[in-house]
Every structure is written in C-alpha cells, then in structure tokens.
Design a protein that fits this description.
The complex is a heterodimer. Chain A is α/β, with parallel strands linked by helices. Chain A is built from eleven helices and 14 strands. In chain A, β13 (267-271), α10 (274-285) and β14 form a beta-alpha-beta unit. The longest helix of chain B is centred in the N-terminal third of the chain and has 13 residues, at 48-60. Chain B has two domains: 11-93, NAD(P)-binding Rossmann-like Domain (Rossmann fold); 99-257, Rossmann fold. In chain B, 31% of the residues lie in helices and 22% in strands. Chain B is built from eight helices and 13 strands. In chain B, α2 packs parallel to α3 (75-86), α5 (161-169) runs parallel beside α6 (187-198) and α6 packs parallel to α7. In chain B, the strands form three sheets. Chain B has a seven-stranded mixed β-sheet, sandwiched between helices. In chain B, strands 1-3-2 form a three-stranded mixed β-sheet. In chain B, strands 4-5-6 form a three-stranded parallel β-sheet, with helices on one face. By secondary structure, chain B is of the alpha/beta class. In chain B, α3 (75-86) links the parallel β5 and β6 (91-93). Classes of the chains: A alpha/beta, B alpha/beta. At the A-B interface, α7 and β11 of A face α3 and α4 of B.
C-alpha cells in the first residue's frame, strides 16, 4: 500500500528524524549548506537474500553507495560512515547523517515498510539533515499490528471490501472468459490457457478470480455474482481442484449465484476425482446441467469455455 | 496427513496442553513436544500474526524440518526468521506453501494425496494448487512422483526452487524434475543458472502468468511483475537457454518429461 507524504513525514518524526518540505525550508529562510549536496536515500528489501538494502546517492546522481542491513543486528554506524565517505560529503556532516539514517532504518523496520524513498535529504548551515520529500509502501500483511495505518485507510465501497473479507482476489481484465480458481497459480494457468487457445477467435480472459484454498459456498456465490455482473463475460471457467472446498459448497454457491442473477452464462467446472461425481450429481439435481459442464483438464476446460463463448 | 500414515507424534497449541485430538496428545510448547516424542519435523498452521513466533519456537526446540502453511506473514517477520535460519541447521519450507508429499510414504501440509502416485518424477512448485493440477496430470499419464515440494509463493521463502533442484539432482529415487514457476521474483532465473551449471537430470518447466499484465498482483503476494525479468516469457527464455524443456500448457508436461508418453 502506498502511503502519503504526510503519513511518512509523521512516521519519520516519531523516530526522531528532522522533516521539512522543501517549500517550508524556503519559507522559513533556512539556509542549506553550500558545500554539501542534497541526497536521496532508498530502503528496500532484497527478497532473494532476505536482507534490507540501503542505497544513498547525491540527488540527481546515479552512483549509489549500497549497504545491507542484517535484520538481527540492524544498520551499523560504520556502514553509514561508509556511505558518507563514498558520497564524498564533508566530515562534519557524517555524525548527523548517521543519526538520521538510524532513525530512518528504525522507522522502516518498525512500521513494516516494504520500501521507503527519501528525496531530497538536505543539510543546513545549522548542521541538521532534513528529509524534504518521502514516499513509502506499507506491507498490507502487517496491518494487524498497525491500527494507525488501518484507521487512515479510506473506506472502500461495499463490493471490494466484502470480496476481501471473503478472501477473494478479483482482477478485471477486459476479455470475455472469467477464470475462477481456488488458488492464484491455477487461476493464472486458466488465463494462460484461454489466452493461448483464444488467439484465433480474438477471445481473452475477462477476469482473474482467486477464491482461496478454503472457499465455502458463500465465497463461490459472491465470486460468481461479481463475475456475472460483468456484461462482457460470455463464459466462465471454475477450477476447484484440491484444497479444502467441498463439492457441495461449489454446487450450492453456483446454484445461489445463478438463481439471483438475470444472466445465464455457461460455465465449465474442474473438480477432482470423487468431488467431480458429487458436484455433477448436485448440479444435475438443480437442473443446471444444460448450463454447467465438467472438464477433465485445464486445456479441455479452456477450449470448452471458448466454444461456449462463441455461442456453440 | 494422519490418514496418509504420516507419523504424527504430538500437537502443540499453547493453553491446550493435556488435551487429545484425533488420538494425538496436545502439548503447550514445542520444547515439551520434542523432549517427549523426539520429533524432528514440524508443520505450522497458526495464524499469520503468530506464525513467525511458531517458526522461532520450532528452530529453538531443535526441529530440523519446518513446514509453514500459513499465508500472509509480514515481510519483516520473514526477514528475522531467515536471519535466524541462517544461523541454525533447520530448514524451513514455505511459508504460504502446500508442503511436502512423498506418495504412499508421508504427507506434510495440505496436498490432496489422492492426486498422487509413487514413482520417479520430482515436482517443485511455487503455487500449491498448480502443483495439484500438475501431479494429477502426471498420475493420469502413468508417471508417478518421488517427491512433491510446494515451496510457497511469498516474496521471501525459506527454501528456494534452486534448493529443491539441488536435492532432486542428488536424489537416487528421482529421474527427472518438473519445475512449476510463475511471474514475479528472480527465483526461476536463479534456478536456470543452477540447471545450466549443475543439473544432469531432465527438467521440464511450466511458468504461469504468460498472460498476466505488468504491475498487477495476481493473488499471490509474490506474483507481480515489477521489472521485465519478472515476466513469464523472460523466465521461459532463461530456462530454455539452460537446457530446460518448456511446457506451454500443463497437458504437455507428461510427453516432455518422458518423450513417447
């Protein structure tokens, strides 16, 4: 989640960093030091090595000095010294820079940020480093321990929030075939199959819908409801393979969705083994077997959905 | 897991020590569980807010193999966990993963075991559900599996594709490997480098997300294209250059892993 400059400034202030917008520095007639260039400082996470990376460079320059912080020990002062030395800034500014960077690193870790960009970072005649501009990305997974961030989130409209509460990820893509699955990888694979086989007909995926590994009938019904609201959708692939979702939940969910929608969009379902049998019995009993068919592979599901989308 | 014959010796839920569940005794701590049972493996299902703590507890209790199924652990928690792992002998699979399955032997995690059958193909996957689909496809083609490892699709994982490829390369029970990747991260590029330099066994790769648009997070926390190297086509090209056979659909995997199937 991207955060506003004000949010980042508030955060940095709490950790003892001096913060002032460049406009305000100008208004207050605070003199910047002539012999010390403005800097830009980036903190990010190296996923492969599981370390925090700090990059600092002269603002406008492209030769950053890079140091890595081990989460167990944090940022060492000697690393900041190496940065200051590498940037060839005057020695008198090193100590205050170390204090600023330590504050910034603490804020980055404690506030669960995924990235933090500070620019410009300005040194004044009075010997203070000011952060003049900032932006950051917050780790949404850590929302449970940051009520201050949760409170600042503007209220989303009913739709997306209820989807999120049910663990559904819905991404509209603009094509004709909705790809629903009980897992992101499988939903992507369905999209890829539709895209590959749909080339001759100019048919592409309408949406990517991940209902999660433990979807219940309510989840299936809600996901289908959103998909059916998209007037461009001509057919649906529903792949519920493995995971904790029971076939009767799938059947109930789709019976519910079809009965509360004005649209009759054909659907191809993938269920595995005994679940497929149980699901098909339930769907037949509900009189939906003209609308719903079963496929034994993803490619098969995609080609059937394509046929259905072309009115076959 | 229990029904599959996995030798589960204890459950741990703080505050529920002394109770029993499905005939297994429940204890308050991992240390207690290890000292009573001699357990060497743990599987973690606790909520994201407590998951890092549970991993630390497993490491400190001397567990050698930790499988963490939990989804949504904060990245900074995983940074601390990985730093602790680097200083220990423990191996973490996951988080946000389907775990490990050795057909007809052991299941640790959430794999739908009826899709699998014993054999000599190793499977490693970032996505859980995709590995189910691939394993069912292999089984239907008569190609059994030696071991199926879901490493998880979070940005930071304890065990990488390369770690699992290394294990399969030296495993006498594995003849060939299916690698299932997806958009986001450098994991497949690192794997390609390992395959090029070290792998003698046949590798078939399927990469999901060829049709995924840049910049959108496709469900998985790690499945987002932020740079061209994170696109599926780029990963396919790197893997192809390493000698890996690329499957463009899951149905192609059996004939690529064993020509003539």
């Amino acid at each position: 989640m991207e955060q506003s400059t004000e949010q980042v400034f508030d955060l940095l202030r709490r950790y003892g960093a001096a913060v002032m917008s460049t406009a305000e520095l100008h208004d207050r007639r605070i003199e910047t030091a002539r012999d010390v260039p403005a800097l830009k400082i980036d903190l990010s996470i190296d996923q492969e090595r599981a370390l925090t990376v700090l990059r600092a460079a002269v603002a406008g320059g492209d030769a950053p000095i890079v140091v890595q912080a081990d989460p167990l020990y944090g940022l060492h002062d000697y690393q900041v010294t190496a940065v200051a030395n590498g940037l060839e800034i005057p020695r008198s500014s090193w100590q205050p820079l170390a204090a600023l960077m330590q504050a910034v690193y603490r804020a980055f870790v404690t506030a669960d940020l995924l990235s933090l960009h500070l620019e410009p970072v300005i040194y004044t005649e009075a010997g203070i480093w000011y952060v003049g501009g900032a932006r950051s990305i917050f780790d949404g997974a850590a929302l449970f321990r940051h009520p201050e961030v949760a409170n600042a989130i503007s209220e989303p409209s009913i739709g997306p929030r209820s989807l999120k509460a049910l663990g559904i990820t819905y991404i509209k893509l603009g094509g004709q075939i909705a790809c629903i699955a009980n897992g992101a990888g499988l939903a992507m694979a369905a999209m890829d199959a539709v895209t590959r086989l749909g080339v001759p007909y100019n048919i592409t995926p309408a949406s990517f819908v991940d209902i999660g590994g433990s979807a219940r009938s309510e989840t299936v019904r809600t996901a289908l409801g959103v998909v059916l609201e998209d007037a461009a959708v001509l057919s649906i692939i529903l792949n519920v393979f493995g995971g904790l979702t029971r076939p009767d939940d799938v059947a109930q969910g789709l019976i519910g969705a079809y009965s509360s929608s004005m649209r009759t969009v054909p659907m191809v379902i993938r269920l595995h083994g005994s679940a497929a049998q149980a699901g098909s019995t339930l769907i037949q009993a509900a009189g939906l077997d003209s609308l719903v068919t079963f496929a034994d592979s993803l490619d098969n599901a995609a080609s059937r959905a394509l046929t259905a989308a072309r009115g076959g | 897991m229990l029904a599959y014959g996995t030798h589960i010796v204890a459950g741990v839920t703080p505050g529920k020590g002394g109770e029993w569940a499905s005939g297994i005794q429940v204890l308050d701590s991992m240390t207690e569980a290890v000292s009573i049972s001699g357990a060497n493996t743990s599987v973690i299902f606790v909520p994201a807010a407590q998951a890092a703590d549970a991993i630390f507890e497993s490491i400190d209790a001397g567990i050698e193999l930790i499988v963490c199924v939990t989804e949504g652990i904060p990245v900074h928690d995983m940074l601390r966990v990985c730093a602790r792992l680097r200083a220990s002998n423990a191996r973490l699979i996951g988080p946000n993963c389907s775990g490990i399955l050795e057909p007809d032997r052991v299941s640790i995690g959430t794999f739908p075991v009826e899709a699998a059958m014993p054999g000599r193909i190793g499977v490693v996957s970032r996505s859980g559900t995709l590995s189910y689909e691939v394993v069912a496809t292999l089984t239907a083609a008569g190609l059994g599996q030696s071991c199926v490892v879901g490493i998880g699709s979070d940005p930071i994982v304890g065990t990488t594709l390369t770690d699992v490829l290394t294990a399969f390369e030296s495993d006498p029970e594995t003849d060939a490997v299916v690698l299932i990747g997806e958009i986001g991260s450098m994991a497949e590029l690192n794997a390609a480098e390992y395959i090029r330099a070290n792998m003698t066994k046949r590798v078939v790769a399927y990469i999901a997300g060829v049709s995924a648009p840049d910049g959108l997070r496709m469900g998985h926390t790690g499945a987002v294209i932020r740079s061209p190297e994170e696109r599926a086509e780029f990963k396919q090209a790197a893997l192809r250059a390493s000698g890996t056979h690329i499957a463009h659909s899951i149905s192609q995997i059996p004939s690529l892993i064993k020509p003539g199937t």
